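> tool_call: predict_assembly(chains=two)
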Amino acid sequence: MQSVHIVSAYDEELKFLAKRIAAMGGHAERMVEQAVAALVSADQDLAQKVIRDDIVLDEGQREIDDKAILIIARRQPMATDLREIVGAIRISADLERVGDLGKNVAKRVMSVTDGREATSLYRGLEALANLALIQLKDVLDVYASRSVEKIGIVRDRDEQIDAMYTSLFRELLTYMMEDPRNITSCTHLLFCAKNIERIGDHATNIAETIYYIVTGDQLPAERPKEDKTDRVVVQQPEVVK
Amino acid sequence: MSDVTGEDRRSGTSLPVRLWEARWYLLAGLAAVLVAYGFGPGRAWALPLAVLLLFAALFSAKPRAVRIAEKAGEVDAAGLQRLSGEYLAAAVADPLIIFDRNTTVVHANAAAFVAFGGMSPGLSLPLKFRAPEMQALLDSVVSGRVASDALDYLEKLPVERVYRVSASSVGHGTELFVLVFKDQSEARRIDRMRADFIANASHELRTPLASIAGFIETLRGPARNDAAAREQFLQIMQNQTSRMARLIDDLLSLSRLEMKPYLKSGARVDLRQTLESVIDSLSPLARDSNLVVERDFAEGPLDVPGDRDELFQVFENLLENACKYGQAGGRVAVSVARSQAGPEPTVDVTIRDFGPGIAEEHIPRITERFYRVDVETSRAQKGTGLGLSIVKHILTRHHARMSIRSELGNGAAFTVHLPAN
């Protein structure tokens, strides 16, 4: 992106892609932030706003796709430029998914408003969302500054998100065991937690794409899978007869 | 500025200067007299000519005053012209960013570096400030639709900050624009602190308060004349009130920390000396719990940038926890080592106990406010549920991380990774 081409319009086009990605990123960050805020404070209006905002990201992705295809067709890009363009397509797809996940969290706000007794659950969800959002912010900051040496931390944090998700999963199961009336809201919260965890995964994907754009190498595949919810079992408390 | 100096000059003028300034009036008057008398009454056009000359003198005197004012202005402008934008930006205490028509950073002052990091020239601004309203602000100023505009910009993570941002065009053919951030976090945080404090405090204070109210009722009713029960109940009530006091202290110290998101830059803390004084201050607790504190410090100087009082509180909270929950192990180990594992060198302080340890599912969550692994043990150990969230908050301010390793039955190790530079 920093290199100068003979045709200055080409540079302009590449810059346009980067700016559009950043704008999408800003929207995605805002949507997730507001979706979680709406969930925690049971704010229906804010949730509706988030649902309406999703269209901006869909449009952004379509625009980037069109533009990128046009650039490839017209300029026959090579090396860094080609990676930059293909990377933009991939990142915009990831951001669009982040927006969808945020929208899904917002949609569930309506269903969990009754039965809000477990404040610690909401604190946990908020903490999980904060981790995912810091992850997203750091990744997009790296996209701006191109300092790929910071990507290692992003991966570390993905592990923290997974561990936190596992813990919330267990807590939700416990609440459901305690009282079947909690099942409705807890199931929705479980999906919300899963969505937020997925946002962290998309952020990690973006980090890998950025690493590829800048260095031309794939980030070594050393990601340990920390999601242990597939093995979480909560024992039924013994019934005293 | 130039107005003031001009006025000063005028008020302080001496008689010769005043005569010199009025020289045109005097000359014109002289000319009029000469014309009127020298050419005699026979010439009818002489008097109108004299009047005309007088008017001409009046008008020529006026630009003179303007010229003086201009000259005064020039004296000041000479210094201003030499002043580079860079020096001016450096003298501004608020974050200030100068950018060009492509919204690329041309210059960012030191305050902007501290607040946002990585604001090097060449960075594209919309990539860094991605919030939709910031994008709109940058766009509207650069496109020339408005000369200047302002908005409130909120950054939630990692620490909450609120700025009043104003963007404006420098103009005068420079094609440059400037973005100034005015920090308003404090006002905002006072509001939030109030709301948070009420939410947290009312929830957590209700339990001890309910228990005290219950005992008072019993003391006035059934146990009115029971001396033994009275003594026992009063003891419980005292425990509950001291718990409430501790809770309020912790909440206040957390809120105070949230009030000031930045650290004073430049100060360095000697970890060796800080840790020694933490260990000293907690030695009575360690003695009561029959614990030996072991030290394993790396050689050489161990100083990191930071705030001594805050880091003292971090290690105090961690060591206090280790003493409280690791009693069974008989010892607590404090070690300091330098590490190059991350992207930048860190100094790692590990506080390890050999108690029952923490179950895996709790580890990610123990830094949340009021999260307790075991409510009963925590109450018995006079915990408030805030110690680790204070630790986490301070470490975020220090750009440090904390990692927790623990296995049930094998104790727990809390490692603080502090950036060395």
